[in-house]
Amino acid sequence: MKVRGVARRAAFGMAVVLLVVYLVFPFGWALVSSFKTNAELFSTPTRFWPEHPTLEHYRQVLANDDFLRAALNSVLVASSVTLVSLAIGALAAFALGRYRFRGRSIVLYVILSMTLFPQIAVLGALFQLVNALGLYNRLPALTLTYLVFTLPFTIWVLTGFLEAVPVEIEEAAYMDGASPLQLFAKIMLPLAAPGMVTTGLLSFIAAWNELLFALSFMQTPDKRTVTHAILSFSATTSSAFEVPWGQMMAASVLVTTPLVLLALVFQRRIIAGLTAGAVKG
After folding, report:
1. Which of the ends of the chain has fewer CB neighbours closer than 10 A, N or C?
2. Cβ atoms 130, 141 nearer than 8 A
3. What is the pLDDT, as a whole number, of residue 99?
């Protein structure tokens, strides 16, 4: 029995190691490639570790004004999407989570279904909407279209959080003379803080990494986001026959590292938020 237990733990440990390597390998490969010289990037056989590490790709990326402007655009768009998602989503979740009315379940499932559509399925309709509002090649177009996906997720997760608040707390607030708005602002919002952090962070990451809408609705270089700017490196910094993989890998590491750090810092709140959203509603 003891030998069987040791074998099970060894097999489990091996499975965990393989899973971690599988998940981390793409980011690790991008990180290692960002320090390789151009000769090492295209050498045969493939070199898994740089023999002559260099920061030249990072220097070129940080000296690229278009990339820096794209990073600023991404910060503006992702921040605005996060704030609007939380503001509207919290109010909607308060109504859906604390009040019972006819059609409530239908509304919740319609909101959930909005997260199931692939981006390409709604691209045509959103393109017509952006054109009709005169927002083509303007950053508010990205804020408006990203909300189509971040807002339903925010409402769904926060509804689960607010539903879990004991009704006795709500009744005590009303007995003390609180209005529904005061109950929302002074009682529910502080209690839903973990869910707010979770949904806010995931909305920011989704808006930061989005590419399809950025490609479709932005035309000029000064309106690009970081994902669009990285994709455009081949057309702006090299010949038509060479793809600057070193710069692309360095830029990918620069834009991904802050998100990884945020996810690690708030990992417990993310898990709590996803769990609450999955079992409530």
Report:
1. N
2. yes
3. 86
Helix ranges restricted to H, the chain: 2-34, 38-41, 56-62, 65-98, 104-114, 119-132, 139-163, 167-175, 180-182, 189-191, 193-209, 212-217, 226-231, 233-236, 245-265, 267-279
178 is written with which tokens? 């609180």
Mean of the pLDDT values across residues 119-126? Answer: 90
Q: Answer for the pair 89, 111: CB distance below 8 angstroms, yes or no.
A: no
pLDDT at 17 over 70: yes
Mean pLDDT over 89-114 rounds to 87
Distance CA(164)–CA(238), nearest Å, equals 55
How many residues appear in the chain? 281
pTM value is 0.82
39-48 CB contacts, 8 Å cutoff, 24+ apart: 41/245, 41/246
With 0-12 CB in 10 A as exposed, 13-18 as middle and 19+ as buried, what is 271?
A: exposed
